[in-house]
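Predict the 3D structure for this chain.
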Amino acid sequence: MTSFAPVLLPVRPATCTLAGCGQPCSTGCSLVTTVARSYCGSTTPIDNETWKGPLAPILDAFRWLELDWDEGPEVGGELGPYFQSQRDDLYRAAAERLLSEGRVYRCFDTPEEIQAARAEAEAREVPFLGTRRSLELDPETVEAYVAEGRPFVVRFQVPRDQSVVIEDAVRGRVEWDAGLIPDPVIQRGDGSPLYNFATVVDDAACGFPT
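Done. Predicted structure below.
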């Protein structure tokens, strides 16, 4: 089973997409189409009615590529809904689970604090990895900050004593030093997910292979 989550901008090259799913699909897998939210620079979420215009050329492109999706918009199926804007409860639950497991944390750094820390790292000519000051807060303080409405984002805590290694279908073996990766934001303070978090949750919920 292969997932394809298209957005209108940017357009991922078809050759890259087909390289990733062509081999599994030739052995009888299913192609499931989900639609990622893309605010295109706006802070206003895109509703389903607004998506009807941009979605049509995307699905037309699928047909041009002779990709017949087994499940998704216009087809339906058991894994819906297929718009990320309709799956917020799923993303919030996943974030809460990761918080309870200690894999992510609420970061209360202000933009000014982050900019100051970034400038200090640049002056020392070292990679900027964030501050992680919020990891030093005890649970009671974190809950107090949340209760008083202090702004925060949720960040994934990168295990910086490890390397990340994957076998990519196109590029082969790819390796990163996790010690050089900053903690990415996965959820905004209002509870809305960032794209990279939402797509991973979708893949896991739908049983797609990693």
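The beta strands are 2-4, 31-33, 104-107, 153-156, 163-168, 172-177, 185-187.
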